[in-house]
Amino acid sequence: MSRTVKKPEERRADIVRAARRLFQAGDYEQTTMQDVMNSLGIAKGTIYYYFSSKEELLEAVIEDMVEESTQHMQSLVEASHGNALEKLRTLITAGNIADENDEILEQLHRPGNAGMHTRLLAAALQKQAPLYARLVQQGCEEGLFHTDTPLETSEFILAGVQFLTDQGIHAWTPETLMRRSQALPTLIENLLKAQPGSFQFLSPDTPEERETK
Amino acid sequence: MSRTVKKPEERRADIVRAARRLFQAGDYEQTTMQDVMNSLGIAKGTIYYYFSSKEELLEAVIEDMVEESTQHMQSLVEASHGNALEKLRTLITAGNIADENDEILEQLHRPGNAGMHTRLLAAALQKQAPLYARLVQQGCEEGLFHTDTPLETSEFILAGVQFLTDQGIHAWTPETLMRRSQALPTLIENLLKAQPGSFQFLSPDTPEERETK
DNA sequence: GTCTATAGTAGGATAGAC
DNA sequence: GTCTATCCTACTATAGAC
Questions:
Q1: 3-state secondary structure of A101
Q2: A58-202 — its CATH code?
Q3: How far B14 CA sits from the closest chain A CA (Å)?
Q4: CATH fourth-level superfamily of B1-52
Q5: Which candidate in B54, B117, B156 is best for mutational testing of the A interface (most A CBs within 10 A)?
Q6: A159 to chain B: which residues are within 8 Å by CB?
Q7: What pLDDT does residue A119 have?
């Protein structure tokens, strides 16, 4: 067999891209290293030369995805107008890693991918929280919010939302999800000390006419 | 080899107990199904008759642990005195699943186990949140806290704390952990609308003399 | 240093005899 | 329900070509 020598970065990127495609198309656990090799026409030794385990390859794929997603969100923020609250709304409604472009979620929401999913969330949180924090900071300056710890508050909100509403972590029942979603706006408003109602847009069925029991 | 026939529940319990012991003693990943079989003197087919994967066996072990831990916390609450805040303090400082008894969590605190780890946290959260919620409710009646959604608020707090401070999910740096821990009391106080300082006991170095910059 | 090829080990998982 | 035999795949080892 003939040899194709590539620059290390290029080869590495090839492998990550191929693996990402396969992981997304199928199931991480069911995708074999052999599959990845075959789809690139390279030898086993090559892949293990760059990634010392399947797990390490997964890590690189995750990093790739998070990087792409974060850049997209970054550009969304820069393109958005209005006060901090309006920008946050843009970011939240449009720029979720889940909604973005891929069917990744479908794939991640399978038992075999729980680990990948969690790590993706953690990596995404770490990269995205600063984005939110900047908007929270801006909101404080505008008098909309009040907090001394914009970053930590952002992290806390993201963590809570992701952990409690993401189907990839636990098979929450629809009732549980509904219950949590409805409580969310108030929880966020409390954390940011924002006007009641500021985050009402988050609620799924905008219960305008509901009465407190 | 002679065959020993046992009642299904008994056999199952045997396997879970043996696996738990081995997982705790060594490393989940390094413990082989062979090890579990050997320690019981049974065949591989038998273990797979009860658990269709190693992962499922781990799940059972974890459920075992969560159940035990939750009961322990329950009894702690019942034995504690004072107002809701004092009871909460007892619960938080004494009754963490992590501190309790096992090193199995140490094992879960590795990248490869992120999925399992998260599921443990989710399972623990679902079982323990009601415990906290009851205390929050009590605190509301005592005028210490103010919330219409004690359960959701408890879930949110537990999720945030677990996700952001648990090493099993992401290898957070010590600085990051410190930063988050210090912000935590205020975040919780905001969520519960509690007196500032109520949860200061959570901070690792109780910074009594720190000034806000 | 980068890549191919191949043979082999270990351990998770399954089929089918009993 | 239990056991035995076998399979599948992540991973290692090695030998060698560019």
A1: coil
A2: 1.10.357.10
A3: 26
A4: Homeodomain-like (1.10.10.60)
A5: B156
A6: 159-160, 163-164
A7: 84
In three-state form (DSSP H/G/I as H, E/B as E, the rest C), the secondary structure along A112-181 is HHHHHHHHHHHHHHHHHHHHHHHHHHHHHHCCCCCCCCHHHHHHHHHHHHHHHHCCCCCCCCHHHHHHHH
Q: Does B42 touch chain A (CB under 8 A)?
A: no
Is the Cβ of B6 closer than 8 Å to some Cβ of chain A?
no
Please give the pLDDT value at position B95.
60
pLDDT at A213: 41
Nearest residue, CA→C1' of D8: A32
Residues of chain B with pLDDT under 70: 1-2, 95-107, 110-112, 204-213
What's residue A88's pLDDT?
A: 93
CATH topology of domain B62-200: Tetracycline Repressor; domain 2 (1.10.357)
Number of helices (H), then strands (E), in chain A:
9, 0
B104-113 per-residue burial string, b: 16 or more CB within 10 A, e: under 16: bbebbbbbeb
Nearest chain A residue to B129 by CA: give it.
Answer: A164
Distance CA A8, CA A16 (A): 12
User: Splitting chain A (213 residues) into consecutive groups of 10 residues, what average pLDDT does each group show?
Assistant: 82 93 85 92 93 90 90 92 93 65 59 76 93 97 98 97 87 94 97 96 64 46
